[in-house]
Task: structure prediction
Amino acid sequence: MERYLGISSVAFGQTPLPLPLSVRVTRQAQLEPAASDADLYATSVQLTRPTIAAEVRIRDTAAPEGMSLGQKADLSFTIAPAQSGAPGRRVTLSGAVLVAVELAYEQSSLATATLRFVCESQDGQTDPFAAEEAQ
Amino acid sequence: MSTLDEVDLFSSGPHGLQVGAWPRERVRRGFAGLDGELVLDLGVRSRLLSHTGRLQAAAAAELDILISEIEAFADGQLHTLEDNRGRSFPRVLIEEFTTAGPIRCGRGFWCDYTIRFRQLP
Result:
């Protein structure tokens, strides 16, 4: 079992997102339960098509200030292994669309930026999420 | 499990039946200067049954078959519908079969549907 500790780098297309605090990736579908008129409990739990979303928190605000909503590029990040010598992990979210930017300027701590992305599948069949061993 | 002419069309997913009341048709007549009115009772007329449910299949082609099997009963002929609780509704015809939007894909393929039956007295 590989364990990971720390984010080595994050980039949105050609734009590096420096000083990453966290990257959160969500794969989510809406729940559509149903039951017959004689049932006490749901007998059908269907799901809508899933969306893959990501939230990136970084300490840098300069890069996000220059980004505009609707921009689309591959979001990629590399996470470092917890044990030395073990391979890291590189995650790519292809077709990530920037849907929200939140800049937080604090009084006595470092400013942070939160960027939210939702992925568009290229052809409707390809999973935008891909993870592999980092080289 | 509901059936139509004892054919299992709906068991791929949950479904339910909303039964409308038997309406009576009447004609009302009023006359100038006279209080009251004349009501002619014309008798019981047909009622509507609304059957809603979900069709589910592992493949889109299987779901198409389930849909076409239901559509085959929209033939203008009278059939007998039996609902989940064993109640029998004779002399029903399918007036309209509609799916709620396109086929959806999640855990397999599925679509919600509504069938409007008309039951003759």
In short: The longest strand of chain B covers residues 88-99. The interface with chain A takes residues 13-17, 53-54, 56, 83-85, 104-107, 110, 112 of chain B (CB under 8 Å). Chain B has one domain: 3-119.
